[in-house]
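Format notes (please read before filing issues)

Several people have asked whether sequences and structure tokens are stored in separate files. They are not. Every record keeps both together, in the order shown below: the sequence lines, then the token lines. Line labels are part of the format and must not be stripped during preprocessing.
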Amino acid sequence: METSESQNKLHSRLRLWEFPDQYVIEPADGSGAPCLDISRVDASMKLIDQVSECKSLRVPKIHSISGVVGMLKLLAGSYLVVVTETERVGSFLGHPIFKITSLKVLPCDHSLKNSPEEQKKMETEFSKLLSVAEKTTGLYFSYEVNLTLSSQRLHDLGHYIVAMSRDMAPVPQKGGLEAVANFPVALAVVLISFWFATMSLKQAGSDYKHKHLFFSLLWTGICVGVAALVRANGRIFCNRPRLHKPRG
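Then the structure lines:
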């Protein structure tokens, strides 16, 4: 029985079949997963169990690819963008990171035959721009981790969201003054309120005037209120997310 992890695993080796009326992307890692059939007429996609036999006299072209970027739809036709060459450039939390060094844009433009001449001309101009995109480098991806998500979302452990920056920080730097430095504005407000409360209490102790006692209680209440607000909404004041447990 396959686990959810194996079902969601990306295929690192793929085989691309170019038929006259379709593209077929077949996993080449021996997993036995279904193939992706893409129509060259309307760019519709479906899963098939295996590559069908070619009914045409033309022998299909076969390419080895490293991944599929997606479908790009222009005015009249759609284009399949695949990764043809990659280079491993590093790792993130033990997961290998690859750089895309070459792309290939495959047209699904059979529908252009019935398009107006002006639209065909514009589509040709866009196709020339896509040929430049094939040589574009600087895109990175990983087969094991989603690089488009933040570290916080990637490390959603059960019902808790833990700040990655705090988890990866050295032990001596956790807590203490580090926690104080996370909300300097809120800390300044609390300290000023505490100072006013202390001064008001001193003056109230000497002459017992009601107005000084009132101000001491007022500043003490502001101090406690700001502290409670920071505790309940730490993500507004802090530059690091707090440990959060969603409801339900």
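For reference, the curators noted about this record: Confidence is low (pLDDT under 50) at residues 1-6, 157-182, 235-248. The first helix runs from residue 4 to 7.
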